[in-house]
Amino acid sequence: MRNEPLHAYSLHQRAYQDKRSIYYLLTKEYGVLHGVAKKGIPQFVPLTLFATGKKSLKTLQQVNIAAAVPSLIGQQQYAALYVNEITLKLLPVEDSMPVIYEQYSHTISNLQQPLSLQQLKMVLRLYEQVLFNELGFGIDLELDSEQVEIKADSLYRFLVETGWVEVDEEDSKLALSAEFVKGNQIIAMRSGIDIETIEVWSGVHRQLIDHLFGYQPLQSRILWQQFYRYQ
Question: Cα separations (Å) of 221 from 5, 31, 49, 201, 217?
Answer without folding.
Answer: 34, 24, 30, 18, 7
